[in-house]
């Protein structure tokens, strides 16, 4: 089956509505883990560069945003598992995307000078935030948004992974 992805195989193997939703739920949990770990890797790198520039990053740790990201990130796969809760799943995915963009904006990347790696790490965070917004829109609209599976697993995870391996 050239060109067939794992979710397509799972969908056709079981023929059950839950197979596509379960793949989205698992990928949503993966996205949650990436958002959480992305903040643990990028924020110290960004704060360190600000320190070298003689500045301070006040929004290094953002506990309220992090907590809201965790809550929204847990609601998304749970709501995906329940038929008829697509609006809640879409809203929580979109909220995750908005919160991730707010966190990213508070890191003030535009003020960094002299090092590209913190910005490159943040590209993966931005990619993931945009994917969550797109997933939220598609799921809330009643579509499963399975393209988000590929974009999340390859794009949003590949960019930060490549940067971590290339810079550290």
Structure characterization notes:
The structure is a single chain. The protein has helices at 6-14, 17-52, 63-80, 86-106, 117-140, 147-167. The protein is an all-alpha fold and 168 residues long. It has one domain.
What would you say about this model in short?
The chain is mainly alpha-helical. It contains 6 helices and no strands.
Feature tags:
168 residues; mainly alpha; 6 helices; elongated; 0% strand
Write the layout of secondary structure elements.
Elements: H1 6-14, H2 17-52, H3 63-80, H4 86-106, H5 117-140, H6 147-167
Helix pairs in contact: 1-2, 2-3, 2-5, 2-6, 3-4, 4-5, 5-6
User: In sequence order, what are the helices and strands, one letter per element?
Assistant: HHHHHH
The main β sheet shows up as: none
N-to-C CA distance: 38 Å
Which structural class best describes the helix and strand composition? mainly alpha
Which percent range describes the beta-strand content? under 5%
Uncertain residue ranges: none
Q: Roughly what is the average pLDDT, rounded to an integer?
A: 81
- Tally of discrete structural domains: 1
**How many H/I helical runs?**
6
Percent of residues in helices comes to over 70%
What is the total tally of β strands? 0
